[in-house]
Every structure is written in structure tokens, then in C-alpha cells.
Here is the input.
Amino acid sequence: MKIGIAQFNPIIGDLSGNSKQILDAAENVVSSDVRLLLTPELSLCGYPPRDLLLNPSFVEAMDITLQQLAQDLPANLAVLVGTVVKNTDAHITGGKSLFNSIALLEAGQVKQFFHKRLLPTYDVFDENRYFQSGLEASYFTLDDIKIGVTICEDLWNDEEFWGKRSYAVNPIADLSNLDVDLIVNLSASPYTVGKQKLREAMLQHSAVNFKKSVIYTNQIGGNDDLIFDGRSFAVNQQGKVICRAKGFKPDLLVVEFDQIQRDLKLGSVSPANESEDEEIWQALVLGVQDYVHKCRFSQVILGLSGGVDSALVAAIATAAVGKENVFGVLMPSPYSSQHSISDALALGENLGIKTNILPIGELMQGFDHTLAELFSGTEFGIAEENIQSRIRGSLLMAIANKFGHLLLSTGNKSETAVGYCTLYGDMNGGLAVIADVPKTRVYSLCHWLNSHNQTEIIPQNILTKAPSAELKPGQVDQDSLPAYEILDDILERLIHNHESAAQIVADGHDSVIVNRVLQMVARAEFKRRQAPPGLKITDRAFGTGWRMPIASKISWLSVKNSQLD
Here is the structure.
């Protein structure tokens, strides 16, 4: 029996458009004698629909669309479609009103529903807010093949693989006990660096452990801060990856289940990414491309400072929407070095994007004049420095408003973490492209980009000069921050590894620096809460999965001398 894997890019809430993508995939595979077509989790509405699910008319429209799709599909093709189903017992049991479900469509009818059993509530996931857990393992029989159905998280509770159990049940084990021939999983699994290797290792372990072949179908596309990488794949009973779809692109695969061997045959295996930098680049390009498209913009604007962060964002934007749709604005102040201007112009020429220079010296003088009496008797400091950033932010927003562009902000994760950024200035924007990319990774990506192009994209001077905000004479970032190699390691340990200050110091970092970084991270929370959405590429990003209080006291985090004895 031939099985199709439809890896496509839904728009959240676009029921008719998503339904058409499913129908198009069905019509494309039916000529290849495909008997069963798989689509991603919540493929009808897109994932994650979030509070759209609280609107009864949206849920009703989904059901109507599903019924119509069943009638429109080829009669000899069975299709699994992600949707929601009302929990008719909710008023009796006190449970949630909806199930996260898969519908089996065949011969013009909705024949069966399968409900997601494990509902994640960590990081960006909040499925208990909307859904009731399914209570039992479910399968269907098609051409004498028993096919067990799971949804995303249902795969992620193998106690032997993880060394722990996060939920009371393991849906894969339950399906194995039902003696199914094949397990399919329909997912909307967000991208993070290195996650594909983990997925494949996990499914390979389950396939061998339970002696069941598994097909994994994943969504692709950018939805707000989340990026979905696709890379759908299948493993046979021996744990061999027998097919893999493309990464970060729509794809349509066909695999064959051998009804005599009761196992999957070898199919098309797309190559894995060569490096983390390559997959991060592809993820960020897709994230920008879809955010621009799905928010109905066509052109983007950003400030070009001559620094590495804006250079990387400009390169990503150019790859995402085309050089003709990217506008870079240089806004030099009296403190800007000549090489910053020439570097930014060289970058613009390398990318082929439009650039414009708007000097801000006179605007700075206007602010100084207006504030002179009020600020008299005080010393030049951060307030005056930040005026420059806010002038630039206002100019960019004015241009964006005037011409209907999307403003991209260019701050990296290291700066966002410690608040080395200005509210209503360089934080202005509709999308923070590299907000989850540490400064050291920014450099790594730029070097990777240059090495994978025939001509230089990021000018070498941008990569070799000391990073600086250039808000006062001779300023460099390390006047205020530790060296980025040190800062990023501390942040990685603190944010991703949840290490205590004492643990970080014990591993060799200076206690004064560690305490200072921890204080900076805590104090910057109010800034991060006002930042634009940032594309998520790690398992701990400053976005929907980061839930820290703003008004708090964190002295308990600091390292005391007694802790170091």
C-alpha cells in the first residue's frame, strides 16, 4: 500500500486555503495509486491557532470545512486531516470543550476521529488551555493494515529513551499492545537547533523497541514567533530512516508499506543539513518570509549601522523577500565612524538592496536645545545616548508607516538578555529577526554565509572590527558588557541549562561578572515584554515560552561569598 506524506505550509485560520492545499496534495498523489494521505497536526486550521479556538463560530466553520473537504476528495483515497472536535461530555465531566484530533476522511465521509492523548504545557505549548486529553489508543484498518494514529506529543514519552516519564501513559506502547501494523504521527513540531537529530533518534528507538514502523508528518512554515521545519520522515522496524522530506520547504513524499513483510520499503531520503549554521539560516529566512507574507506586507525596512547584527538581518531579509523589497537606512550621528558608513554602503551594494542616508546630527541638536533647561546641571549620560537610538527608531517607523513597509529590528539575543538595547529606539519593529541568536552565533552565521557564496556578502571589516553602538566617542560594547564569548556562555548556562550562579562560578566564571549578568537579565525583563515578536530557534527563547515576572527581586540568585568557600 502506498502512503503519501503531505508536508505543507498552512496559514492559521485560513480554513478554505488550507483545505485547498490538502485537496491539491490529494489530487497530486492519487495518480500514483496512493491509498492513504497524511497531513500535519491541525492541518485544517494551522498550528498553533491559540485563542481562535475560544471562538465558537471558528470551531463551527472548521467542522463545515471538514465535511466539504471529505466530499471533494478523490473517492478512492483515505486522508488523515488535523482538526478539532467538540467534547460533548464536557458539561458532565467538567473537562475542556475540544479535542485536538485527526479525522479519517474516505469515500465522501468523515469516518473516524482520533484524539491527541498527551497535551504539552511547557515552553510555547499551552494545550491544556483548550483541549481535553484523549483517553484511549486508536487505530483504523485500511486494506487489511491496522494503522495506529498518534498526534505530535504522543510520541514524546518513551521512558526508556528519555530516562524518565513525563506523562502517565505511553501511546506508542498502547498501540503496540493492540498489535497495529504501522504507526503514523501527525505533528506540528516547532524548529529548534538540532531537534531533527533528536526526533529521528527517538523514533528509531521506538521503532526497534516496539518492532513497529513509524511515519512522522510535520508542518512547515513560520507562524508568528514559531518556525516549523518539516523534515517529515519514516523509519522501518529496524530503525532505519527510509524516507525524509525536505527541510523548511513544502514537500510531498510517497512511501510504500509492504503488506507481506509488514514493513516500510526504502524511499526518497533528502540529505540532512551540513551544519547548525545552515539550518539556522534556512529557519530564519523562512521565518521572515512567512511573517512578511502572512501579515500581508511586501517590503521590509531596517536600519543599517555598519555593524554585524544589521548586516546579518539585511542578508536574511534579502534571501527571504528579494533584494528589490529590502530598504536599508543609514542614520549616522556625529559619533558614527566613517567606516561604519562605508561598511553599511558596501553591504548594501553586495546585497543589491536600496539604501539611503539620513544624518541625525541636526535632530540631536534639536533635542539638546529643547531639553537644555530641564537637563541643566546634569552630566551627559545614558539618557542622552538613548535619544540617538530613539531618533533613529522614529525615522524608521515614519518611513515604514509612509510606505507600508514592515520594520525589522536587528537586536541579537545577547543584547536582549541583558537589556543592551533601547526601548522605542533600536527595539522598534514588527519582527525581531535574530532575537534568539546569540552574538557569537551571529558572527558564525556571517562567516558561514560568506563561505557559501561565490562572492563576499558581509564585508570583512564588519566581522573584524570591535562591535560598538557608537553613541559616544570611542565607545565599544565591552565598555558595558563582558566579552561576548564569556557573556554568551554565562547566558547559555543560566537561560538554557537553568544553572545557578554558584554552578556557573564553579565552572570557572568570575563571580562579580556572573552576579552582574544575572542582575542585568532580571532588570531587562520590562524591555523584553515590550519587544516585537522574535523568531524562535532555541529551546529557550524570549517569547511566548518565556514567562518571567517584571516586578520582582532576585537577590537570591546572586552568588554569596559563603557559597564559594
About this structure: The longest strand covers residues 78-86. The first helix runs from residue 15 to 30. The chain has 19 helices and 20 strands. The mean pLDDT is 94.
